Amino acid sequence: MKENKLVQINNVLEADECIRFLINRPKREMVGLGMLYGAPGLGKTTYAQRMAFQRGYIYLRLESTTTPKAFMVALLSALYRKFRLGAFIPTGSANNLLQLILHILEDHKDTVIVIDEIDYAFSHEKLLGAIRDIVDVTLTVVILVGMQGARDRLSQINAHYFDRCNYFYEFQFLSKQDIALVAREVMDIEVTDEVVEKIDFNSGGNLRKAMKVMYIIESICQSCPDADISGMDLGRAL
């Protein structure tokens, strides 16, 4: 199977539109904050990582242990690497680090920052506040990536913060057309309609499961070219 492909399925196209909208917004009238969210296994993190890498955006992934200061250090380190500001990363209080971040972003107005697993920030008011300050004070585009209930939780936590988000997109389960597009881009065997049907039936539109099904089918077909795809029992493997 081919790796690191960012196939242009519907979720990718819609998420790209979110970023395009924020980049092209009237910057003095609207902040550049948007959110991508959805159920597990639909490709949000895969999209965020590969899109950020391909376009030179900053990608940060929050963890359950991420504190506001740890976030500042990670973001500042990423900014120093991206803009080649030196090998020495300044230290200090969280507020001092934030002020330095804002100064750097003021000098690099086209910066796009992708923050994955934003749900972990919902219990840290100061962390959310730092992200709010970034979009309020600078022209930076910040894309939040979260789980299925992220939009509702953000609305419940802080209505004013929620109102700052100028674009939301909820990742959807893949259609059969999406499945076919991914399969034909990444699989190293001939992808027939029968193969697409098998992947679609066994994955239920979940991209993570679909990739696993593709790998299993490809492995079987490569070891046994005459294998009957319709008769394959994938239940135990899934």
Instruction: Return the domain count.
Output: 2
Note the beta-strand portion.
5-15%
How confident is the prediction overall: mean pLDDT? 92
CATH topology of the largest domain: Rossmann fold
Count of extended strands: 5
Helix content: 40-55%
Summarize the structure.
By secondary structure, the chain is α/β, with parallel strands linked by helices. Helices cover 51% and strands 11% of the residues. The chain folds into two domains: 10-170, P-loop containing nucleotide triphosphate hydrolases (Rossmann fold, 3-Layer(aba) Sandwich), CATH 3.40.50.300; 176-231.
Report on this model:
The protein is α/β, with parallel strands linked by helices and 238 residues long. The protein has two domains: 10-170, 3-Layer(aba) Sandwich (Rossmann fold), CATH 3.40.50; 176-231. The protein has helices spanning 10-23, 44-55, 68-83, 94-107, 125-137, 150-157, 159-164, 176-186, 193-203, 207-223, and strands spanning 32-37, 58-61, 112-116, 141-146, 165-170. The model has no long low-confidence stretch (mean pLDDT 92). 51% of the residues lie in helices and 11% in strands. It has a five-stranded parallel sheet with strand order 2-3-4-1-5, sandwiched between helices. α5 links the parallel β3 and β4 (141-146). α3 (68-83) runs parallel beside α5 and α8 (176-186) crosses α9.
Pick out its properties.
10 helices; 2 domains; 238 residues; 5-stranded parallel β-sheet; 5 strands; Rossmann fold; alpha/beta; 11% strand
Write the layout of secondary structure elements.
Layout (H helix, E strand, L loop, with lengths): L9 H14 L8 E6 L6 H12 L2 E4 L6 H16 L10 H14 L4 E5 L8 H13 L3 E6 L3 H8 L1 H6 E6 L5 H11 L6 H11 L3 H17 L15
Parallel strand pairs: 1-4, 1-5, 2-3, 3-4
